[in-house]
Amino acid sequence: MKTRIFIIGSGVVGAATGEGFLKAGHEVTFIDVAPARIAELAARGFDVRSKIDLSGEPESLLFLTLPTPNDGHRYDLSAFEAGTTAVGKALAGSATRHTVVVRSTVPPGTTEGLVKNTLERHSGMTANEGFGLASNPEFLRAVSAAEDFAHPWMTVIAGRDPQTVERLRDLLSPFGGELRTFDDPAQAEFIKAAHNIFNATKISFWNEMWLVAQKMGVDLDPIAATVARSAEGSINPEYGIRGGAPYGGVCLPKDTQGFLGFADTIDVDMPLLTAVVETNDRLAAIVNHEVEAAAHAAADQLRGPAGEARVVVPAGGAGAVDDRSQEHESA
Asked: CA 8, 160, 154 angle in degrees (round to 5)?
């Protein structure tokens, strides 16, 4: 079934998104404020406009694909907020119920914070009543954005209204790939941020190891290629992803701390590995505190209201322990 779609912000992500929907048979209008971008899209035969007008339009999906660059250690949401404001005003002039979908990369909480508040203020409507609201973060690489949209490996949809989520599922599932849905838009926003941060951290990890290899005079490439196939963190998607569970055992603490000492002997600073150890130590302290608190509570329960001894079996059965560490490496 053909869907009416507006792309708000027609840069790399917006253009790839809109063109992908067009090729799937949907009716798409691109919105942008940059004259050069408008001229470029018009030259390609697309319906492109400088302002959004929803009067007379049927029920539509409005994808926010606006720029959200960083300004130092924060997201610059000025252009994003301006585009969202324009959408809110357009909603006010329409008698039809439309759905706004946040596709830009934004801080967790933005969809139900800035976006919801801005749309409600300028439209005079209530989210999930007068208009639909959802998050559908993009996972497009700049060099292959059109191909990535056409053949996604992961699609994430989140919204409070099950009908809105289902509508987006129907729209996006034909493109293939794994599709996951959530009730809370902040989860989808968090996924996109963590996705990019994980990739950046992996790159920095091997760059830090490259500094050590350079100092030693060894070729890192075959080392990294081998570790990528030997380390469980590379070959097992479930490894190490349980939050609140620091690594433990013998091997991981030994090699993380021992390698820091080794790097120091060859005068190589390793701030990322240092942060790994410090983070694990902090989490271990938190977990130990929780275990001690639980042990004290259990002891109080065993004593009973007047010192009376009672037998309490842990939820995991007799002999159950709280082993939250993550340790699956070779010694």
From this structure: 65
Which of 160, 98, 101 has the alpha carbon at shortest distance from 125?
98
Q: How far apart are CA 132 and CA 119, in angstroms?
A: 11
pLDDT digits (tens, 9 = 90+) for 262-290: 999 999 999 999 999 999 999 999 988 88
Domains of the chain: 4-193 (3.40.50.720), 231-303 (no CATH)
Tell me the one-letter amino acid at 56. Answer: G
CA distance 49 to 32: 7
Q: Spell out where the chain has E strands.
A: 4-8, 27-31, 48-49, 60-64, 99-102, 132-135, 154-158, 178-182
Q: Which stretches of 156-219 are DSSP H helices?
A: 162-172, 185-216
Q: Which 3 state secondary structure label does DSSP give 131?
A: strand
pLDDT at residue 312 is higher than 60: no
Residue in 289, 298, 292, 256 with CA at minimum distance from that of residue 273: 256
**What residues contact 111, with CB distance under 8 A and at least 6 apart?**
102, 133, 134, 135, 158, 185, 186, 188, 189
Is pLDDT at 154 greater than 60 in this prediction? yes
60-64 vs 99-102, strand pairing mode: parallel
Each residue of 209-263: pLDDT tens digit?
999 999 999 999 999 999 999 999 999 999 999 999 999 999 999 999 999 999 9
CB-neighbour burial class of residue 267 (10 A; exposed 0-12, middle 13-18, buried 19+): exposed
